[in-house]
Design a protein that fits this description.
There is one protein chain. It is built from 8 helices and 7 strands. The protein is of the alpha/beta class. The protein has a single domain, classed as Rossmann fold (3-Layer(aba) Sandwich), CATH 3.40.50. The termini are far apart. The structure holds magnesium ion and zinc ion.
């Protein structure tokens, strides 16, 4: 039965996610699972976040991609520990892949672990990897219909970054609809309107994240 298979896969995943979770708790690591469509700006946000918070917190990154190492290379170029997970065609990271990625990191030397998921608005929202929060990016060129088409990712995220706001004058992006529909799906969703290219609006995000990390790390 197909439905039962999916349920069993998610149950097995949840068990490993719980194990990851307890290890992160024990090591006092704040973990964010970053999700978006391909090209929405995940790696650019990771780079900006590293630049802003690296003096305050020890940061590491697990990069999930179907293949290639270019995102991990971008992070490693900043001098930050980065592990690349290639899913070999798989369209999301699961808890077991993240567990394997963790084995390549010194967990005693990390305050903030950023897990950059595979670019996809569907199953990354279903699979827990042991994170504290799911964070999503919606970029303006994707259009304002994404909340109604992919509700789960909006429902499961703590924060939505609306990225590429600098492009809005050139697009027919219905900002009010996108924000209204996202909030209707998740009234607790915190929204920051940003441009990872220009840096606009990012201070609010850095402040939000920094406060969460501080609570876990205890500084
Ligand atoms: Mg990327
Ligand atoms: Zn998938």
């Amino acid at each position: 039965m197909k439905i039962q298979v999916v349920k069993n896969i998610l149950d097995a995943n949840d068990r490993i996610a719980d194990e990851n979770r307890s290890l992160f708790n024990q090591k006092k690591i704040f973990v964010m699972n970053l999700m978006s469509s391909p090209g929405a700006g995940k790696t650019s946000l990771v780079e900006r976040t590293i630049e802003a918070l690296r003096d305050r917190y020890r940061i590491a990154v697990i990069e999930g991609d179907i293949q290639d190492t270019c995102d991990a290379d971008r992070v490693a170029a900043l001098g930050i520990p980065a592990v690349q997970i290639n899913t070999g065609g798989g369209c999301h990271l699961d808890a077991n892949m993240v567990r394997e990625g963790m084995s390549g990191l010194d967990l005693d030397a990390i305050d903030l672990l950023i897990v950059e998921n595979v670019g996809n608005l569907v199953c990354p929202a279903e699979f827990r990897v042991g994170e504290d929060v799911k964070i999503m990016i919606l970029s303006t060129p994707e259009g304002a219909d994404k909340p109604s088409k992919y509700p789960l990712i909006f429902q499961n995220s703590a924060v939505m970054l609306l990225n590429k706001i600098d492009l809005m004058p050139h697009l027919d992006f219905d900002r009010d609809k996108a924000l209204r529909d996202a909030r209707a799906l998740n009234p607790d969703l915190t929204i920051f309107e940003v441009s990872c290219r220009t840096g606009a609006g990012l201070d609010g995000w850095f402040g939000w994240l920094s406060e969460r990390v501080a609570r876990v790390v205890g500084v």
